[in-house]
Design brief:
120 residues, Alpha-Beta Plaits, 4-stranded antiparallel beta sheet, 8 strands, 33% strand, globular, PII-like signaling protein, N-reg_PII-like_a/b, UPF0166, N-reg_PII/ATP_PRibTrfase_C
């Protein structure tokens, strides 16, 4: 199945609707019924204006955060339509990918977008 890998970049200290922005994105993905999302914390990075962001021993507020989603074209359109309604500015990368499942329990019909639920 064809789709997109969407990666959002933010910092631990950014808030939206009273939640950390990364957590809010995960919640939004669930509300939209997307296939999944992963929140990852980085050690260090810098943004578009060159400011260094890092996780320090005493302070994690400036820690870089990524939220990754592998989505279909329809899911991607719904996600970005919803984000356009929010009062935020959020940097992202969106790249075309192939997504699916591999292994004995993957759907044998060639549609590997959903795993098999029966046990052999």
């Amino acid at each position: 199945m064809q789709g997109y890998l969407v990666i959002f970049f933010t910092q631990q200290n950014r808030q939206h609707h009273g939640h950390m922005l990364g957590d809010w994105l995960i919640k939004l993905a669930k509300e939209l019924g997307l296939r999944g999302a992963t929140l990852s914390a980085g050690i260090e990075g810098f943004g578009h204006i060159g400011k260094l962001h890092s996780a320090c021993f005493f302070e994690l507020a400036d820690q870089p955060i990524e939220v990754r989603l592998a989505v279909t074209a329809d899911e991607c359109n719904r996600l970005f339509a919803r984000l356009e309604q929010e009062d935020i500015a959020l940097f992202y990368i969106k790249t075309p990918i192939e997504l699916g499942f591999a292994g004995k329990q993957a759907v044998p019909s060639g549609n590997s977008a959903e795993p098999r639920t029966d046990q052999e």
